[in-house]
Amino acid sequence: MQNNQKEHLYKILVIGDLGVGKTSIIKRYVHQSYSTNYRATIGVDFALKVLNWDSKTVRLQLWDIAGQERFGNMTRVYYREAMGAFIVFDITRPTTFEAVTKWKEDLDSKLTLSNGKNIAAVLLANKCDQGRDMLLNSSIKMDQFCKDNGFVGWFETSAKDNINIDKAANCLVKYIIASENDILKSVVPDTISPQLNTARNSTCSACFKS
């Protein structure tokens, strides 16, 4: 029983439009590798990252969800039991940023924690090695966008140059653990899994304080 208390498995979604670099981010984070030849993800792919976190073993099950899936019906299945999410956009393609709010709305409408709160989500402004756009030149505006849309923080990232990916992941894990602790204080332990809603109703930020 004691060993179980020291190990945690968290499912993390990696979502965003097609071609924003979700697979590249995961490959860099998990395998410390990068390629320009990744094929587009079909449906969903998986990867596992193991961390040592405050004397605990934390296993992150990363779900790489294809960019076109927001337009299908399978995301409800893919989202089930996730504790956190990265939503990714490509800073060189403004339309992928415009889609961020749609991804977040889709996520929040289909998945909540057992205490009714949304899961922790971090916004990744990817491909920052390719330059900056006007949006990212105003970190205050990005901070406000994240607060308005329920993100716990945002980071400029580059899978190619390995910029801020570990920092972003650590930010998300911190919030996931805090969310889990909040749930444990308010409900019995065997109900802490996230539940699907039954009806549809760097220059980087520091993690926002809750």
Automatic annotation (TrEMBL):
Enumerate the NCBIfam families for this protein: small_GTP
Membrane-topology annotation of the record: Lipid-anchor
Keywords annotated in UniProt: GTP-binding, Lipoprotein, Membrane, Nucleotide-binding, Prenylation
One Pfam family this chain carries? Ras
Q: What is the name listed in the Swiss-Prot or TrEMBL entry for this protein?
A: Ras-related protein Rab
Q: Which cell locations does it reside in?
A: Endomembrane system; Membrane
Principal localization reads membrane
Question: Tell me, what does this protein do in biology?
Answer: The small GTPases Rab are key regulators in vesicle trafficking.
What organism is recorded for this protein?
A: Albula goreensis
The superkingdom listed in its UniProt entry is Eukaryota
Q: Which family does it belong to?
A: Belongs to the small GTPase superfamily. Rab family.
Q: Name one GO molecular function term.
A: GTP binding
Q: Name one GO cellular component term.
A: late endosome
Q: Which GO terms describe its biological process?
A: endosome to lysosome transport; phagosome-lysosome fusion
The cross-references to PANTHER family, in alphabetical order and at most eight, read: RAB FAMILY (PTHR47981), RAS-RELATED PROTEIN RAB (PTHR47981:SF43)
